[in-house]
Amino acid sequence: MLNLSVGPDERRLDSTAEWKGVSLHVEVMGSPVQVCLTFLPEPRSCRLARNAVLDFCRAHRLTDLTENAVLLTSELVGNAVEHAGTPITLTAELRAGRLSVGVRDDNPVRAFRADAEPEMLDERGRGLQVVDAIAAEWGTARHGTGKSVWFRLP
């Protein structure tokens, strides 16, 4: 499991097979504090991303934001796994008490919130509606070959 609370100069991933194929970059130089992980486009990446954001929130005592941050991270990474098919980069940043989480992929297809409501029994189609309802802010940005989708809390 990702460990971000071992001290200001040391950040590590426990050496478990679960984290194989995940790369990590951490900046801890005053404010902001940022962690950046890259995942393969596979279902287990959703769980790994949730756990990383959970650990990030715990390490920085963001207890009021943790549940929403984990839920929204799961929505964005799940969309990237399903639709992008490219490596996924997750960035969590704490700046002036606000948490920002971004998910970047190399698929050029734009992410958008569907205007039409899904049918009541539909199992899909609500991800970005959930992000829109919970996040203080969210958006998308294009870059080189792909896009980023991000949210901010509170």
What report would you give on this structure?
The structure is a single chain. A 6-stranded antiparallel sheet has the order 3-4-5-6-8-7. The chain contains 3 helices and 8 strands; from the N terminus they run E-E-E-E-H-H-E-E-H-E-E. The two termini are 26 Å apart. 29% of the residues lie in helices and 31% in strands. The protein has a single domain, classed as Histidine kinase-like ATPase, C-terminal domain (Heat Shock Protein 90, 2-Layer Sandwich), CATH 3.30.565. It is of the alpha+beta class and 154 residues long. The relative contact order is 0.16. It is globular, with a radius of gyration of 15 Å.
List the helices and strands and how they pair.
Layout: E1 2-3, E2 12-13, E3 23-28, E4 33-39, H1 44-59, H2 63-83, E5 88-95, E6 98-105, H3 127-134, E7 137-143, E8 146-153
Antiparallel strand pairs: 1-2, 3-4, 4-5, 5-6, 6-8, 7-8
